[in-house]
Design brief:
The protein is mostly helical. The chain is about 70% helix and about 5% strand.
Length: about 350
């Protein structure tokens, strides 16, 4: 295969590690990272394997062949019932929420220039949960949980950015303000649950710990549509976000509208977080681990939008599968699994001298 090159003024500049995509009679040339492409394909294949395993394992074990036959409407009626009615929606919820949390974390980290600035750590998840719980138990609010989750996420984001200030979004102040907002939102959630009937509190409890059992078909459909709609603009904004990670004078000199870029990225992160919380509740650490693993796999300092989404989906499906089979028939909520797995990594990040120098 010939070495990819980028043509400019009738000269060929070698572009090692990239494929060159030409369109419109070579008027548009787009370099595509070879490693990132292979990483994304590997993550997609791993996700398919994890989804197949999640559909196969359980109280009624199925082989991969039986799973795929049931998905296309063939095989025994019992297998179709188990796969299509009992397990498929749960797997789709895991894929959608994991991708949404990780993509929102990637955007938020880049926007705030801080690897700890994920929706879960800075309190956006808790605020979305508080509003969703208020909707579920009917505390004077008639909006559906997805709509209330979006309102809660937006409210927390506005408060955090307003209280942290411009320069504060790049350091500890942004994190501390977010932790405070999250603590207040968590306290409000507990206050609501303690003041309603026991049946209402039990109905809202899954939203407080993170569980794919709390899903509803309407919220899941809205999440998958929102994920597709938000992913395309995020992919388009990734080039500008790469430059935004540098000094602000650089994107301005390149003609990038920094305020517009930040506003769009923030809106996408809030929408993704709100929709994901409406389905699964505040599942911690996925928004942190997804982008971190994606960056390590891609080995570049850019914004791995697609790799983050795929990694988050993979983590969520695997965590849910582990929670279902580890102590079967007792089921561990996916939020507890991700917290147990992700907390040691968070501690390692905080104790790492290299990481502390980046805050």
């Amino acid at each position: 295969m010939p070495t990819p090159s980028l043509k400019r003024n009738n000269t060929s500049l070698p572009l090692a590690g990239f494929w060159l995509f030409n369109a419109f009679q070579q008027k548009v040339s787009l370099p595509i990272s070879q490693r990132t492409t292979w990483v994304n394909l590997g993550l997609l294949l791993s996700l398919l394997v994890a989804c197949t395993a999640s559909l196969s394992l359980g109280s009624v074990p199925l082989s991969p062949t039986e799973v795929w036959l049931a998905l296309i409407g063939k095989g025994s009626a019992m297998h179709q019932l188990v796969v299509q009615e009992l397990r498929l929606m749960r797997v789709l919820a895991g894929v959608g929420t994991g991708a949404a949390f990780a993509l929102a974390g990637c955007l938020m980290q880049t926007l705030a220039r801080n690897r700890l600035a994920t929706p879960g750590i800075i309190g956006i998840d808790n605020a979305a949960t508080a509003f969703a719980v208020a909707s579920v138990v009917g505390v004077g609010i008639s909006l559906a949980p997805p709509a209330m989750s979006l309102v809660g996420a937006l409210t927390a984001t506005v408060l955090i950015f307003a209280l942290a200030g411009g320069s504060g979004t790049q350091g500890y102040r942004f994190i501390v303000v977010g932790l405070g907002i999250g603590a207040i939102a968590g306290a409000i959630t507990q206050l609501i649950l303690s003041s309603v009937a026991l049946d209402d509190a039990n109905a809202a409890f899954p939203w407080t710990i993170g569980s794919l059992n709390a899903r509803t078909p309407e919220a899941l459909t809205l999440l998958l549509i929102g994920l597709l709609v938000c992913w395309l603009p995020a992919l388009r904004l990734s080039k500008g976000l790469n430059v935004l990670r540098l000094s602000e004078t650089i994107p301005i000199s390149l003609g990038i509208n920094v305020k517009r870029l930040r506003a769009l990225s923030l809106i996408l992160a809030v929408i993704l977080t709100g929709l994901a919380v409406a389905v699964a509740g505040p599942v911690g650490m996925v928004a942190l681990l997804g982008p971190e693993i994606a960056r390590a796999l891609c080995r570049h300092r850019g914004v791995p939008v697609l790799a983050s989404a795929l990694t988050g989906a993979l983590l969520m499906v695997l965590a849910d599968l582990l929670g279902r089979i580890m102590l079967a028939p007792l089921e561990i909520p996916v939020g507890l699994v991700t917290a147990v797995v992700g907390s040691p990594y968070l501690l390692w990040m905080l104790l790492s001298p290299t990481f502390r120098s980046q805050l």
